[in-house]
Amino acid sequence: MTQQQALYNYALRLGDNSLILSARLSEWCSNAPFLEEDLALTNMALDLIGRAQAMLKYAGEVEGKGRTEDDLAYRRGERDYYNHLIMELPNGDFAYTMVRQLFVSTYELFFFEELQKSTDATLAAIAAKTLKEVKYHHLHAKDWVIRLGDGTAESNARVQKAVNALWMYTGEMFEMDHADTMLLKEGIAVNTDNLKLGWIQMVTQILALANIDLPADGYMQTGGRKGIHTEYLGHILSEMQYLQRAYPDATW
Question: Which CATH number fits the domain that encloses residue 112?
Fold first, then answer.
């Protein structure tokens, strides 16, 4: 693998994470518990699609084959996506979505804090912009998890159920492969091994405030960065890519 290929894979994976989670959060549009939250989740989805556009555009430029961000978003098959599995899971109930957002945005706080120090100027610039948005995403998820966990017996039970179900998908966020280690030597990538302790400490503190028990570590789901996904990604892509597949190269 060349450094160019590694950088392409790296930017592509980051774009895929944002694109797929954006698709999931956008499903809450007109379905959230109340109007203000409907707008909040939709705005978060827009933040993520903006990040996905920037990352996929850069991936296309690095690849050097003339593919645009739209080509990469709409003209790849399921096995050619490399997002973390947690991004593609169904929204479940509101507590489930907020717990997923807490796990992801806490990770992203640490990740983009480091990525903005990258020797790659484009990745550093995207990370700096993203970090401002992630801080809001994290605060929003944190407030809701604490509110629901420290609320009624029903809301507490739903948060605990979500934490228990999602925990096995968190380990994948800290995995590293050959592309990561190659770029790490050049100061481009983030060493995710160094993020895990801070992530666990922050999540543990938040869950304690929410009166939620931390699950015991066990088997962790993996495979996303190898193109191996849950059954759910195919359904997301079939809806998201329908127009491009039905009418390729169509223009207004």
Answer: 1.20.1260.10
The mean pLDDT of the chain is 96
Is residue 197 domain-resident?
yes
Does residue 232 form part of some domain?
yes
- 8 burial (CB, 10 Å; 0-12 / 13-18 / 19+) is buried
Tell me if 232 sits within 8 A of 88, measured CB to CB.
Answer: yes
Neighbours of 130 (CB within 10 A): 24
Taking residue 119's Cβ as centre, other Cβ atoms within 10 Å add up to 11
- 246: buried, middle or exposed (CB in 10 Å: 19+, 13-18, 0-12)? exposed
Burial class of 220 by CB neighbour count within 10 A (0 to 12, 13 to 18, 19+): middle
Half-sphere exposure of 195 (CA within 13 A, CB side): 24
> Is residue 251 scored above 80 in pLDDT?
no
Give the domain extent around 94. Answer: 3-246
Task: Give tens-digit pLDDT for 215-238.
Answer: 988 899 999 999 999 999 999 999
- Give how many domains the chain has, as a whole number: 1
Q: Judge whether 241 lies within some domain.
A: yes
pLDDT surpasses 90 at 27? yes
Angstrom CA distances, 117 to 75, 171, 186, 244, stand at 32, 24, 12, 37
Residue 32: per-residue pLDDT: 85
Whether 252 maps to a domain, the answer reads: no
Least confident of 97-101, 161-165, 242-246: 242-246
Report the Cα–Cα distance between both ends of the chain, in Å, rounded: 40
What one-character DSSP code corresponds to residue 132?
Answer: H
